[in-house]
Amino acid sequence: MIARRIAAALILGPTLALALSATALGHPLGNYTVNRAVAVGLGPEAVAVRYVIDMAEIPAFAALQAIDVDADGTADPSELDAWADRTCAAARGRLELSVDDEALTLVLGADPSLTFPAGAGGLETLRLVCPFNASWQLAAGTHHLSVADRTDDGHVGWRELTIAAGGLSLLASDVPAISPTKELTTYPTESLAAPIDVRSATASFRLGAGSAQPATEIAPPARPRSTSNDPFAALIAGELTLPVVMLAVFLAAGLGAVHALSPGHGKTLVTAYLIGSRGTLRQAAGLGLTVALTHTLGVFALGSITLVAGEFFVPERLIAWLSVVSGGVVALLGLGLVWHALRPSTERAHPRAHDHEIDHHHHVHSHPQVPASTVSVRGLVALGLAGGMVPSASALIVLLAAVSTGRLIFGIGLIVAFGVGMAAVLAGLAAAITMARRVVVAPVGIGSWPLVTRAAGLLPIASGIAVLAIGGVVTIAALARIG
After folding, report:
1. Can you list the pairs that 368-373 forms with residues at least 24 positions away whose Cβ atoms lie under 8 Å?
2. Across-strand partners of 164?
3. What is the per-residue burial (b if ≥16 Cβ within 10 Å, else e) of 333-372?
4. Nearest by Cα to 455 from 439, 477, 476, 468
5. Closest Cα to residue 112, out of 88, 94, 79, 92?
6. Across residues 359-371, what is the average pLDDT?
7. Parallel, antiparallel, or unpaired: how do β-strands 95-99 and 142-149 relate?
8. Positive/negative CA dihedral, 410, 413, 419, 422
9. Torsion region of 30: left, alpha or beta (phi above 0 gives left; psi -120 to 50 gives alpha)
10. Four-residue CA torsion sign, 233, 239, 245, 250
11. Quick one: average pLDDT of 349-372?
């Protein structure tokens, strides 16, 4: 039975690895997100507020480290209750409600609800529900409500606010009455790329007929526990036998190759730079290895920081700044390529003059020499660092899951295999581009065609502009995320 399963995995595994993207996410909004919902329910005698926090795998992992105060590896009920009470108290302190410009005093109406739905790679996500309420005495006439959540923890994520009414009439509101996510249990697919960010709202209401009860009194079910849809993170889970470990390492390398070929990765950058700088085969291989090595070390570094200071550390903020640095380095390299392509080059003129002199005096025919590589070791290393310094979220999930399950060596092996797959694809691509460029610029064959010759002459400047543009786009996008 086991042999048949292994055989089936060997046949289907590579196919699945190529079919699935290694950037698939366990949490719908991404492994780094902290999502918040404030659901306000208005009643004749009180206002009820449900404050919901939905943490994805990485911040949930950091929260669990903070919950386990005695560091015994287990969060016992007293530790869970204490953390939930502290977190709800902090949320209440940043939640502002006022009616007719008079502040309301919120109190915790019941015990917080803390659950841990399944996430990617065997890690857990975290869902905390804080039920607040405040009593009031309303006079006849129209009243105005103002709500604001001043929480700003630096994490990216979904932020929503809803206002519903029960037993009174809601006259106007600038937010919906029904949560579009069922209080962070089901995220709308069409909004995942640009999650909403609503942190304040106003409404007007008066005593009178309304719905039977505030919507916040009905708690939606927690996000269902489901298997991870992240193929790389899924490799860390399951029974460990020698055949399974070997297969997992093989699939990790395949997923690293898929990751290297995925949209937005460094293949375009590698291609443009090597074309513009006239890189050699050895440099092409070195570039691919540098990108993969940098990426792997970045995963280990980010994982270590998350383990040591995860509660005070916002990984996506660091990643955004790494993206700024990466984009800036790439832009500078692009400028260097443009500079080398545009500046007057006596080195390029000298070989032609020498060949003409030989032709004139010795009647020897000599083809123009192919320009030498302009890649420096410093530029190659800089490009490799820039291309690999932003770590993959899937690889970080694997590392954290390996730590939490006591499979650190296995997790490291998977991450290294992932990097090897990346290196093989990027180095192979770089080598293919280098050889193709040699064919195009060669003075024989298609390289001697007039149109090809003119196009080859424009390659350095075009490639430099392409690298500069890639760096600029990456930098601007990262700065926009930082805000």
Report:
1. 368/443, 370/278, 370/438, 370/441, 370/442, 370/443, 371/278, 371/441, 372/278, 373/277, 373/278, 373/279, 373/280, 373/283
2. 41
3. bbebbbebbeeeeeeeeeeeeebeeeeeeeeeeeeeeeee
4. 439
5. 88
6. 43
7. antiparallel
8. negative
9. left
10. negative
11. 44
Residue-wise pLDDT for 166-178, tens only, equals 888 899 999 999 9
* pLDDT band with cut points at 50, 70 and 90 for residue 153: confident
DSSP 197: B
Token pair for residue 269?
């950058």
Q: Are 248 and 232 in contact (CB under 8 A)?
A: no
250-273, pLDDT tens digit by residue? 999 998 888 877 655 455 566 666
- The model carries a pTM of 0.70
- CA 446 from chain centre, in angstroms, equals 43
For the chain, the straight-line distance linking the first and the last C-alpha, in angstroms and rounded, comes to: 55
Residue 17 has pLDDT above 80, yes or no: no
- Separation between Cα atoms, residue 94 and residue 124, nearest integer Å: 26
Whether the per-residue pLDDT at 358 is higher than 50: the answer is: no
pLDDT value of residue 164: 94
Cβ atoms within 10 Å, residue 426: 31
Task: Provide Rg for the chain, Cα atoms.
Answer: 29
Q: Cα(280)–Cα(277) distance, rounded to whole angstroms?
A: 9
Q: Which of helix, strand or coil describes residue 149?
A: strand
127: tokens are 């869902």
The Cα 445–Cα 370 span in angstroms is 14
The pair of structure tokens assigned to 139 is 């006079």
